[in-house]
Design goal:
By secondary structure, this protein is mainly alpha-helical. It is built from 39 helices and seven strands. The strands form two sheets. The protein has a five-stranded parallel sheet, sandwiched between helices. Helix 26 runs antiparallel to helix 27 and helix 33 packs parallel to helix 35. The longest helix has 17 residues. The radius of gyration is 29 Å and the shape is globular.
Length: 761
């Protein structure tokens, strides 16, 4: 879909990822090949014999942690270790963009695919909200276990990983690696992993600046490799003065070698900061054009000829990059694409701020435009934010929103939205509507309400970049979904949105879904079905497969309500056909199709299949909240009816209690409160029986999802934003409902019931 972002850098995505979906149906993740390549040795690199012996002796440990400031040769040492042939080695250079579970797991899977083919279904599962990240990790551990030779996964620049969910998944991966396989992390600072537990278990080896510093003999090697004429004693003196810091020592050797006062020439990080060395040794010998190129392109994470031509506003960048890769110690080459050593890049960025302070924003804007034209949305958004151009950042995010939604990239979109403060977002109120949809889809009532309040105060003229016909249309759809002013107002806003989204507009299908829900609340099933039929046509026209799946499922439910089982089966089968090729389970919008499938299974007499599907659908319940009250109550009613049809009155009552909680917050939902009351009256006359898995509350389901991780109740509470005592209370309730006496037994019973996915061994 997009051209290569870097010279001679192919994307591996065609080999490992599922086919892209068009329109709103999802995106193909761009796997940057350079991030998966083991770095090549740089000029002047010293063979770290002593350190390598120490690293090679860590095979019995699951984790090797290298923590030191930039310039200590962490990457070089690990690259040398990777070439030792002890284990199958795969590599991942992390960056800020990996702080999204979908992105992180995609790269983790791509890295493992280098040494053991990963089933393409795993890549589809990564995008699916219905498949937990832990289950994906389990499949990746299985792939590593299938490898005949032990595997070493190196994650360089691990300090850039800070998303809590990503780190929890990484910890799970490390914890379950087979004997002989391991992970090596290189980072500037310690990252938030359970190192205390691992150290107590003697499963981690720590390598710090002391082990990474060059010793006297290695300093002599470095001098020889750099063509220095300094004596061994002079090199040892420099080693002591720089405390063996490899990058500073290399620069000191070059400086001392040219110094006229070589005898007694002293150098230290305290007396002469490393920036002074970089300036004198790397900039002063270069032409003004070369310096301008270096400083301007320092804003880039990775470099290619075409990109640098645009950003630096100089032709011939490819040749310049090749020349720089040959001539300097601090530029890494990655199979035809390039990146600056982090130490050098930081220095060059500081120099840019001094030399051309007014140019920084302009350079980021150029990079953003180039990346957007190349289809690299993450990089385009990052540079748009860095440029300070709020209009551009908003437009970039808005255009990508639906694509990222259907690819499970909620962590990325939420991160984007958090970068807009209220002052910045006021001129772009349509962006708050988009943000509200994401929070609504996650079931977060408070965040949805807050964003909706901002949208209500906003005004915007023209067509928003998100593809809606107008800001008024987008806000009307949000009003219809949230029902803040009751059922009649929801119907009015839904009809207005359909009017403002004419045939051919990409959001018309969504507006028609809102209209169908509003008509259902009004007690008009025929009108609802008509809107849904039009919505299916619109969704197919815009290739919005995710919403088409939803609309077909909703139509199937209406057919069931009028006892037209033949029509219901045809519609449900059409929805299932879409689902089979795409990862749509786990979205709020998938509820109607799931309910229809379950009801049809019961009608056909497939009680076991219906029970199994109903148990799996329990994972949707935390999404059914007052953020979208009509959708939540309608879905809970559908699931409750299925429970009753299976003779599970206790499960039905739990769902109706949840629905009643929504109604207490949003009482004006048309005919829905009466339907809930009628079904509650039915369940009141039935024997409830023992509380089981179907009676788990939404809070208990959230805690249950965290129980398989190696986390204390306090740590689970920190992730869910509640007290440890509350987590303990929920956990004990879970044990009781599942018939377990311990945490491990509860996990096993939850797996058997289908509430959790089995973690492959």
């Amino acid at each position: 879909m997009s051209p290569p972002v870097r010279d001679a850098t192919r994307s591996v995505v065609e080999r490992i990822a599922p086919s892209p979906r068009r329109g709103h149906g999802g995106i193909r993740h761009e796997i940057i090949e350079a991030k998966l390549l083991i770095p090549q040795s740089r000029r002047g690199a010293v063979r770290r014999t002593k350190l390598l012996r120490e690293l090679q002796g860590t095979r019995g440990h699951h984790l090797v942690s290298l923590v030191a400031p930039p310039g200590y040769g962490k990457t070089s040492a690990l690259a040398q270790w990777a070439g030792s042939g002890q284990r199958s080695v795969t590599w991942l250079t992390a960056d800020e963009g990996d702080n999204d579970p979908v992105v992180f797991l995609s790269y983790l899977a791509a890295a493992i695919d280098r040494v053991e083919p990963v089933d393409p279904a795993v890549f589809r599962a990564i995008e699916s909200p219905a498949v937990s990240g832990r289950a994906v990790v389990g499949r990746l551990v299985s792939a590593v276990s299938a490898q005949a030779t032990p595997v070493l996964l190196v994650i360089d620049d691990a300090h850039t990983l800070h998303d809590r969910a990503c780190l929890d998944l990484l910890a799970e991966f490390i914890d379950h690696l087979p004997e002989g396989s391991g992970v090596a992390l290189a980072s500037r600072t310690a990252i938030a992993l359970p190192f205390a537990r691992w150290r107590a278990e003697a499963s981690v080896v720590d390598v710090g600046p002391g082990q990474l510093a060059l010793d006297d003999d290695e300093a002599v090697q470095l001098g020889h490799r750099l063509g220095s004429t300094l004596s061994a004693d002079e090199l040892r003196d420099l080693t002591h003065q720089t405390e063996g810091w490899p990058a500073l020592l290399a620069l000191a050797v070059l400086a001392a070698n040219r110094a006229t006062d070589r005898p007694g020439h002293a150098v230290s990080g305290a007396d002469l900061p490393i920036a002074d060395y970089l300036r004198s040794e790397l900039l002063e010998p270069r032409t003004e054009a070369e310096i301008t190129f270096l400083t301007r392109t320092s804003i880039l994470e990775r470099l290619s000829g075409p990109l640098c031509d645009v950003v630096a506003d100089q032709p011939g960048s490819a040749a310049m990059l090749t020349e720089l890769a040959r001539s300097t110690l601090l530029i890494d080459e990655y199979g035809g694409s390039f990146r600056y050593h982090s130490l050098l890049r930081e220095f060059l960025r500081d120099e840019l701020a001094l030399r051309e302070p007014d140019a920084v924003a302009r350079l980021h804007r150029r990079a953003s435009e180039w990346y957007e034209a190349s289809g690299a949305i993450d990089a385009a958004a990052e540079h748009a934010f860095a440029s300070g151009d709020v209009d551009r950042a908003a437009a970039t995010v808005g255009k990508a929103m639906l694509l990222y939604h259907w690819s499970g990239r909620r962590a990325t979109t939420r991160m984007w939205f958090r970068r807009f403060d209220e002052d910045a977002i006021q001129p772009h109120p349509w962006l708050t509507v988009l943000a509200a949809w994401e929070e609504l889809g996650a079931g977060d009532v408070d965040s949805t309400e807050h964003l909706a309040d901002i949208a209500e105060r906003g005004s915007f003229h023209g067509r928003p970049p998100d593809g809606t016909g107008s800001f008024e249309s987008g806000r009307a759809m949000l009003r219809a979904a949230m029902c803040r002013r009751g059922a009649d107002d929801a119907l009015t806003n839904a009809a207005r949105a359909v009017e403002l989204e004419p045939i051919g507009n990409p959001w018309r299908d969504f507006a028609l879904w809102m209209l169908s829900i509003a008509r259902s609340m009004a007690g008009d099933p025929d009108g609802a079905d008509g809107a849904l039929a039009d919505g299916v046509v619109a969704a197919r026209s815009s290739h919005n497969l995710g919403l088409c799946h939803c609309l077909l499922g909703h139509r199937a439910l209406l057919a069931i309500d009028r006892h037209d089982w033949d029509a219901a089966i045809v519609l449900s089968d059409a929805a299932r056909t879409i689902q089979e090729g795409h990862s749509l389970d786990g979205y709020l919008s998938s509820a109607p199709a799931r309910i229809a499938e379950i009801r049809i299974s019961i009608h056909r007499g497939d009680v076991a299949g219906a029970r199994q599907a109903l148990t799996r659908a329990v994972r949707l319940r935390p999404l059914l909240t007052a953020a979208a009250p009509s959708i939540g109550v309608m879905s809970l009613l559908g699931f409750a009816r299925a429970h009753l049809a299976l003779g599970d009155a206790a499960g039905a009552r739990t769902l109706l209690t949840q629905a009643n909680g929504i109604i207490r917050v949003c009482p004006d939902l048309g005919v829905l409160p009466a339907e809930v009351a009628a079904l509650r009256a039915t369940t009141a006359s039935l024997p409830i029986g023992l509380a089981g898995a179907s009676t788990l509350t939404t809070a208990e389901l959230r805690v249950l999802a965290m129980l398989p991780f190696y986390l204390s109740f306090k740590e689970i509470g920190q992730r869910l934003g509640v007290k440890a005592t509350t987590i303990k209370t929920h956990a004990l309730a879970i044990y009781g409902k599942l018939g377990a006496s311990t945490r491990s037994e509860a996990i096993e019973l939850a797996v058997e019931a289908g509430l959790l996915e089995r973690f492959p061994s």
